[in-house]
Amino acid sequence: MKNFKKLKILITGSSKGIGLSIAKKLSKNKNNLIYINGRNKNNLLNVKKEIKNCHLIQGDITNKKVLKKISNGIKDLDVLICNVGTGKASVEQGKEKKIDWEKSFKVNFYSAVDTIKAFEKKLIRNKGTIICISSICGLEYIDGAPLAYSVSKSALNTFVRSYSRFLGPKGVNINAIAPGNILFKGSSWEKKLTNNRKKTMDFINKEVPMKKFGNDIAISNLVSYLVEDKSKFINGSILVADGGQTRSF
User: Which residues pair with 8 in a beta bridge?
Assistant: First the structure.
């Protein structure tokens, strides 16, 4: 991890799920200071029991006033991991209204873009690292994926690729990780398995060549690699972890 110096790392949406797994992985380097962000106070307090070298930041980063307050409170930052997002849909595909598109872009696109802009000067000063957690739904059509979610993640992927041209010359690398079907406690896939295990596994066996789910550990391992100095030449990339599911090149 960057010559073992103390890294200041902010992970948005990290009080549970993939974000929490990332926090646990990066906290193994005791020199690091991990900023844990989430909306639920109890979830944050539970994290503190597991990760000692962390600082808790309660707040919804999709709220610009809250984001500004958080940004002002963090004086120095080396690594920004934008993990906030949701694939939940309130309406069927094709029945989306403007408000549905706006909600999806707010959570899945602007949550990353606004946070990056809020911390940009600090990251440029430290020649830092930005990692966005995206989705394979932003790469190609995925059967069953909500349309607004897919389009907003596609926008995020394009932003990462394009903005790397601006940040690269300033010493900051920005990349995204596009997970496939990731199973962990409390995930949507766990719920699907509970509701209809056969249908869910039929989908996995048909669509994923490896015929299995990925897990949050696989994603946190990728993040850990992208944080290290030896990955600094990777910039503007979308790293796919999907067991071979996507077909586009």
Answer: 33
pTM: predicted TM-score of the whole model, two decimal places: 0.94
If one counts every other C-beta atom within 10 angstroms of the C-beta of residue 86, the result is 14
**Strands, sheet with 173-179, edge to edge from the N-terminal-most edge strand:** 54-58, 33-38, 8-11, 79-82, 129-133, 173-179, 238-241
Task: Give residues with Cβ within 8 angstroms of 45, minimum separation 6.
Answer: 56
Q: What is the pLDDT of residue 2?
A: 46
Q: Which residues of the chain have pLDDT under 50?
A: 1-3
127 exposed, middle or buried (CB, 10 Å; 0-12, 13-18, 19+)?
middle
Q: What is the pLDDT of residues 47-72, one digit of tens each?
A: 999 999 999 999 999 999 999 999 99
Distance CA 149, CA 83 (A): 14
Q: How far apart are CA 81 and CA 148, in angstroms?
A: 22
pLDDT of residue 1: 45
C-alpha 22/C-alpha 170 separation (Å) is: 26
Q: Which CATH superfamily is domain 2-186+215-241 in?
A: NAD(P)-binding Rossmann-like Domain (3.40.50.720)
pLDDT at 3: 46
- What is the spatial distance between Cα 115 and Cα 201, in angstroms, rounded to a whole number? 36
